[in-house]
Write a structure and sequence with these properties.
The structure holds 3 protein chains of 3 kinds.
Chain A (H helix, E strand, L loop, with lengths): L3 E2 L14 H6 L2 H8 L14 H13 L1 E6 L4 H14 L4 E6 L2 H14 L6 E3 L3 H10 L2 E2 L22 E14 L21 E3 L6 H14 L2 H8 L3 E2 L4 H9 L4 E5 H9 L4 E4 L5 E11 L5 H10 L3 H9 L22 E2 L3 H19 L2
Parallel strand pairs in A: 2-3, 2-4, 7-8, 7-9, 11-12
Antiparallel strand pairs in A: 1-12, 4-11, 5-11, 6-9, 6-10, 6-11
Chain B lengths: L3 E10 L2 E11 L4 E5 L6 H9 L6 E6 L2 E4 L12 E4 L11 H11 L4 H14 L15 H13 L5 E5 L7 H18 L2 E6 L2 H7 L2 E6 L2 E6 L1 H6 L4 H6 L4 E9 L2 E4 L2 E4 L11 E6 L5 E4 L9 E11 L3 E7 L5 E7 L9 E5 L6 E3 L2
Parallel strand pairs in B: 3-8, 3-9, 6-7, 7-8
Antiparallel strand pairs in B: 1-2, 1-4, 4-5, 9-10, 11-12, 11-14, 12-13, 14-20, 15-19, 16-17, 16-19, 17-18
Chain C lengths: L17 H28 L11 H6 L3 H34 L5 H13 L2 H12 L5 H10 L11 H24 L4 H9 L4 H12 L1 H17 L2 H6 L8 H8 L6 H28 L3 H4 L13 H9 L1 H18 L16 H9 L1 H33 L6 H9 L6 H12 E2 L2 E2 L4 H11 L1 H14 L2 H9 L4 H29 L5 H4 L7 H9 L4 H26 L1 H7 L3
Helix pairs in contact in C: 1-13, 1-18, 1-20, 3-4, 3-7, 3-10, 3-12, 4-7, 4-16, 5-7, 5-16, 7-10, 7-16, 8-9, 10-13, 12-13, 13-20, 16-27, 17-18, 17-27, 18-19, 18-21, 18-22, 18-24, 18-26, 22-24, 23-24, 24-27, 26-27, 27-28
The chains are: A alpha/beta, B alpha+beta, C mainly alpha.
């Protein structure tokens, strides 16, 4: 049974009182300074806890951190990088944003070849971490500030080899030309959307993989056999659906909340619809590699996920903030959304199977 | 001692045989011409002497040093030989001075010594003052001289020349023949000179080796080669010759078709041997039949064709049995085609050679 | 007198022959670059992905399942159709440019060269903007003008991919045929004209049959390129839910990856390309057209009268479709905040150039990497090619011809397969290049070694052997001769060869996409990665930057060497 929540049920993100330490580190002044890019030029910025300061000091000696993320769009990753560098000057963030299965595949190739390259690995497919953990390549680390998270997200791995890094939904996105968007997932099967649907690919995108497993489990594979008849356009990343909708190439898609909303805010003709049969909640983990070339910088980056700056940056780029003290950008708090979430154990076998079946059904 | 000896050298390219069992001595200080038609193997022989080709069989010696054999070849740069190419092979990216100085630089001579020697050799080849030109700024004859200077300035033991004059026009070619001869006389370097031009070989060479189809046909001084050819090929290749195939029937007596001819000598042959009787066209005597006298080597023929050559006439006369001979006679005789003529092939001008 | 001077002695010779050592190093490098990766593909193909046991199951799986067979069929269709279009376009253009008095011949030639230099995946990207079924500008224009429900073009289709690939491979046929036509003397055509044949008949019956080998060579090259092409099918066919061999190979490398299955799947493609090449060589040998071998006599263009304008109109179509429209589209997109909104005021920005060159570390690192790796690989390829070609043309050592064969072998190896071989060979101990710049540098060098080799071989053949022999007889050992005589004479050819290897390295995608890690990303892989989420504005900006660098280099080469060197190498 998959975990699920609905607006009437127990909210997964009960607000939590802030500790003294997080209050200190999220001091308004420091946060504002960081967001304005005015974080201290030389020396440690103000408002760092002694632990954080020590970590920053060590990280600065390493000079850089290598971060592979699939969590959000390129623009969001750019913003996170900027916020991190503002808070911790002197540390270069080398990052790539790629789809989950692509960075996972690259990581596996690196591991096999003995190439040490990545410090912080942020996929959208939770099952990757189960596999990596079994291989024993993840470092156990409890990041600073992780305790400020809502309880539901505080201990997603009890061995502390990975933690929650981002929250998002797969939902229905559509071009504003459409007056009555599909209200639920099964509406996409309607012949009315023939030639008008855009999808990502589970072989690339972790969001799409999650969505495919969820649809499969709830409606059976038949859902996709029928969907294929509507001749959807298949991209790679789930974010590709946003491009298709914005450009008018397609009208509706199974897309991400964050990048769709970011584009909507920029004035593009796109909107999102939370499906009545449940948006797919993606809890994207983040972990540190055991043989990370820059271990301290890696810890600093992972801890950064739980700062207020990070959550504010998330909100700014229309992602759900991790912390409860930052309001969600969509105006719809997670606890007001009807959502469905796959269990990590189900994804572990489900996604490779889904990819194989997808190839049979869609030909790519 | 820079005598070059080729001993039983053979070279094949796949099925084609370029050299067959060539044995040849180039004496110290002499200028030997390798003469033959194109494809006779003379350039192959030169390339083997220079060390660019490996013989399939046989050996090449320089003095008492074995320099080429099928097993080992002393590379060209260790042979102290200089080669002048048909194309001159002047390096287009270097000036005349640099071209000539190259070999001296390899010998690590001091810079002023190089300058001195280059200036001196430029004088020898009459190119003084052209050191700063590039090859393309020179005439063909000048390029030829630069090539010669570049080869000579390193004072090689042996100088090899591969058809060096064939790219020059007729007038310049004649001039350069004497020039090369003069330089050889001055330097005394053992020289092998490859050419297909028999007149050139005659003028330049101390001795000539005539080659044909990968073999040496005959080696000798120019007069020896001209006056006493030893094979059909040599006789016909050097100057013009009437070559009548026949059989030796008695002492110095040859039957050629329907004729019985007496030859100058027949030391090398036995009766019954197939031979070729050679007689050069200027030696053939022609008269009108009126008042004919009987005698040796005298026969009646019919004039087939007449060509006017200025002070000579070139006659083609059909003899009994179908043999046609050429005769050069003083102009002004007014023989007419179809006319019966008395032809004499003087016995002392008739030489027997191998067919 | 010469005798007056003291005898001149040559310095003593070193024991070790430096030339032989250099040659041995070249041989080892060739084995390492070409033979080992190819062997590894064969080895990998008979081992199971799961437990590495020896098996033929990979072949059974690859060639029994419909979803793997369909891409093969698609690839063959794609390559054959693209080659056919490219050959027709290339031949017509070549004939018009070299045999007629059509106006603008020089421009057409230049534009053909521009299409040759442009990688087709950039063209594919541009054609998405132009001819995506609903959002493409051409379709939108059509809808606006005609009031139809939708436009006529759909670039997301096999036909779309065929069209795009053909538009970037017609320059092969163009180059081959136009240089062959330069050698056909006009007498041949004139004698037909005297017999009363019109120009169309002459072209069809006399001229074109004479250059058949060139047309054939162009067709083969186009086919090989099309079947090996990865970027365009990835951009256009995955959305269309169609697969070709190369995209299928790519998917085998995606999660859950099947590298050994990929190796088995690659082998028939390798046999096909190798076989085609052998067939073409045989055909060329048999149908030897002696007139085309030598230098022709006088060449007089056909006077077409008013037809020449029609022909000119016809000849502008391929350049229009391969260069003018695509570059306009790329430029417009790269200057847009959001390309979907079209070129309207307020949508104009230089942001993406700033992003690529300054703001985004990954992008500007990729630009630096591209330049550095392309320079390094061009250097490796050029040096290796010249050393090998020198040994082969001068028969310096036994077996040198075999080496030249190895140097030319990558010609028939599609980039993606070479990459699979490299990955199999050098992403594991004992020699791990994966994760380092060398992985890409060596792969690029291998991939473009045939270009460098044929360039250096013809350059070396153009140098009279006697120039070197003259130096040898004067006492210069081979290595000194090479350095003092051959190399200075080759200076321009070396530079031209280097550029001819540099340019394709700069725009190489199909092998890079397998071999890079994010730390060694290059422009093309960043473009490819960005395209996965429809980030077309930065893709276009990076593409424009890449092509600006390329065209600047081409212009430089043009100035240095004139057009002939480049034109001649187009098809090498």
């Amino acid at each position: 049974m998959a975990e699920s929540g609905d607006p009437q049920g127990r909210p997964p993100s009960a607000p939590r009182p802030l500790t003294r330490r997080t209050l200190l580190q999220a001091g308004v002044g420091a946060a504002a300074a960081a967001l304005l890019g005015a974080g201290g030029a030389a020396g440690a910025p103000a408002g760092l806890s002694p632990e954080e300061e020590k970590l920053y000091e060590e990280a600065r000696k390493e000079g850089k951190v290598v971060w592979w993320t699939a969590h959000y769009a390129q623009s969001a990753a750019d913003a996170v990088r900027d916020a991190f560098v503002a808070r911790y000057p002197g540390i270069e963030v080398q990052f790539i944003r790629q789809t989950a299965q692509v960075i996972y595949q690259r990581l596996n190739q690196n591991l096999k070849a003995g190439v040490r390259e990545v410090d912080v690995f942020a996929s959208t497919d939770e099952s990757h971490y189960l596999a990596l953990k079994k291989q024993g390549v993840l470092a156990a680390y409890r990041p600073l500030g992780v305790d400020v998270l809502p309880k539901a997200y505080r201990n997603i791995d009890r061995d502390n080899t990975y933690h929650v890094g981002a929250l998002g939904f797969v939902l229905i996105n559509y071009n504003t030309k459409v007056t009555t968007p599909p209200g639920q997932w099964t509406d996409l099967l309607d012949g009315r959307w023939k030639g008008q649907i855009t999808l990502g690919h589970p072989g690339f995108s972790g969001y799409v993989g999650n969505w495919v497993v969820a649809m499969w489990d709830r409606y059976g594979w038949d859902y996709f056999t029928r969907l294929a008849k509507n001749n959807p356009k298949i991209g790679r990343s789930i974010n590709d659906t946003v491009t298709d909708i914005v450009s008018g190439e397609r009208l509706v898609g199974a897309g991400p909340d964050n990048y769709s909303l970011e584009n909507k805010a920029r004035g593009n003709p796109i909107n999102v619809q939370f499906p009545a049969d449940g948006a797919i909640l993606i809890v994207s983990p983040v972990g540190i590699l055991k043989d990370a070339p820059h271990p301290s910088a890696a810890r600093l980056l992972e801890s950064f996920y739980y700062t207020k700056e990070y959550s504010m940056t998330m909100a700014k780029v229309y992602n759900y903030p991790l912390r409860a003290d930052v309001p969600p950008p969509s105006g719809v708090p997670i606890d007001k959304v009807k959502w469905y979430r796959n269990k990590a154990e189900r994804l572990e076998k489900g996604i490779p199977d889904a990819i194989a079946k997808w190839r049979e059904t869609f030909g790519v | 001692m820079a005598e070059i000896r080729l001993a039983h050298v053979s070279k094949r390219y796949g099925q084609a045989v370029a050299l067959r069992d060539v044995t040849l001595v180039v004496r110290h200080g002499e200028l030997l011409a390798l003469l033959g038609p194109s494809g006779c193997g003379k350039t192959t022989a030169l390339q083997i002497i220079a060390g660019f080709l490996v013989p399939d069989e046989g050996e090449v010696w320089a003095g008492d040093r074995l320099i080429s054999s099928p097993r080992a070849v002393l590379p060209p740069e260790r042979r102290r030989m200089s080669l002048v190419f048909q194309s001159y092979a002047l390096w287009p990216h270097m000036t005349v001075f640099q071209n000539i100085a190259f070999g001296l630089e390899l010998r690590r001579l001091p810079r002023d010594e190089i300058a001195r020697r280059v200036a001196w050799i430029l004088e020898v080849v009459n190119l003084g003052g052209l050191g700063n030109r590039y090859p393309h700024e020179l005439s063909g004859g000048q390029q030829q001289r630069v090539a010669l200077a570049r080869a000579l300035v390193v004072q090689p033991d042996t100088l090899l020349l591969d058809e060096p004059l064939s790219n020059l026009d007729a007038h310049l070619r004649e001039q350069m023949r004497f020039e090369i001869r003069r330089i050889h006389t001055e330097t005394g370097i053992t020289t092998v000179y490859v050419t297909h031009d028999q007149a050139e070989a005659m003028v330049i060479a101390d001795r000539i080796a005539v080659m044909n189809a990968g073999r040496i046909e005959q080696v000798g001084t120019p007069p020896e080669i001209y006056d006493a050819p030893q094979s059909h090929f040599v006789a016909s290749f050097i100057g013009q010759a009437n070559c009548l195939p026949g059989t030796l029937v008695g002492p110095a007596l040859v039957r050629c078709g329907g004729l019985q001819l007496r030859a100058a000598d027949c030391r090398a042959f036995r009766p019954g041997d197939d031979v070729v009787l050679c007689v050069r066209p200027p030696a053939v005597r022609v008269r009108r039949t009126a008042g004919a006298a009987a005698g040796d080597n005298l026969t009646v023929g019919r004039l087939v064709q007449r060509a006017y050559l200025g002070d000579l006439e070139d006659l083609r006369i059909a003899l009994p049995g179908g043999v046609v001979v050429r005769a050069f006679v003083p102009a002004g005789q007014r023989y007419e085609p179809g006319e019966e003529l008395l032809v004499e092939l003087p016995a002392d001008a008739c030489r027997l050679v191998r067919p | 007198m010469v005798e007056a001077a003291p005898p001149l002695a040559l310095p003593e010779r070193r024991r070790l022959d430096a030339g032989l050592a250099v040659w041995l190093a070249a041989a080892a490098l060739l084995l390492f670059m070409v033979m080992v990766p190819l062997l590894w593909i064969a080895v990998a193909s008979v081992h199971a992905d799961s437990d590495n046991r020896l098996t033929l199951a990979n072949y059974a799986e690859a060639f029994s399942r419909a979803i793997y067979l369909r891409p093969i069929q698609n690839s063959l269709t794609l390559a054959a159709a693209a080659a056919a279009i490219a050959v027709v376009a290339g031949t017509v253009l070549a004939w018009a440019v070299s045999r007629t008095d059509m106006p603008g011949r020089h421009i057409i030639r230049l534009l053909a060269f521009g299409a040759f230099v442009t990688p087709s995946f950039l063209g594919a990207t541009a054609w998405i903007f132009l001819a995506a079924p609903n959002s493409g500008w051409l379709n939108r224009g059509w809808v606006a003008l005609s009031g139809a429900a939708r436009g006529p073009f759909n670039v997301y289709s096999l036909g779309g991919a065929i069209f795009v690939i053909a538009m970037y491979s017609y320059p092969y046929t163009f180059a081959f045929v136009s240089s062959a036509l330069e050698l056909v003397p006009s007498e041949m055509e004139r004698s037909a004209a005297l017999l009363g044949a019109g120009w169309l008949r002459i072209a069809w019956r006399i001229t074109l049959p004479l250059v058949r080998p060139a047309i054939l060579a162009g067709a083969l090259l186009s086919f090989l390129e099309a079947i090996a092409e990865f970027g365009t099918p990835a951009f256009l066919l995955i959305p269309a839910r169609q697969q070709v061999i190369t995209t299928q190979l790519y998917l085998f490398f995606q999660y859950p990856s099947r590298p050994n299955l990929a190796a088995a799947y690659a082998i028939p493609l390798l046999l096909l390309t190798g076989g085609l090449f052998a067939v073409q060589q045989r055909l060329l040998r048999r149908g030897r057209f002696t007139t085309v071998a030598g230098k022709g006599g006088v060449r007089q263009p056909f006077r077409l009268g008013p037809w020449r304008w029609l022909l000119f109109g016809l000849c502008t179509i391929p350049p229009l479709l391969s260069l003018i429209l695509p570059y306009a589209a790329l430029l417009a997109t790269s200057l847009s905040r959001a390309w979907g909104r079209g070129p309207i005021p307020g949508n104009l920005t230089l942001y993406w150039y700033r992003w690529a060159l300054v703001d985004n570390g990954a992008a500007h690192r990729a630009i630096t990497h591209s330049l550095a790796y392309a320079a390094a690989s061009a250097t490796v390829a050029t040096v290796l090619a010249f050393v090998t070609a020198y040994a082969a043309t001068r028969r310096l050592v036994p077996g040198a011809r075999a080496l030249s064969f190895i140097a030319m072998a990558p010609f028939v190896v599609p980039g993606i397969i070479l990459a699979i071989g490299f990955f199999a060979a050098y992403a594991r101990p004992p020699l791990v290049l994966y994760g380092t710049a060398w992985m890409l540098i060596v792969a690029f060098a291998t991939r473009f070694l045939p270009i460098a080799y044929s360039g250096s071989e013809s350059a070396l053949r153009a140098i009279e052997l006697e120039l070197e022999h003259a130096a040898r007889t004067l006492g210069s050992p081979p290595i000194v001769t090479f350095r003092r005589i051959t190399l200075p004479l080759l200076r321009r050819s070396v530079l031209a060869t280097w550029l001819m290897a540099f340019i394709p390295s700069l725009r190489e995608l199909s092998s890079a996409v397998f071999l890079f890690t994010p730390a060694t990303a290059v422009m093309t892989t960043v473009i490819f990665d960005l395209s996965d989420a429809g980030n077309f504005e930065p893709v276009s900006a990076l593409g424009i930057i890449m092509m600006a660098i390329t065209f600047a280099l081409v212009a430089l080469a043009y100035r240095l060497f004139g057009g002939t060197v480049l034109a001649r190498r187009q098809g090498a």
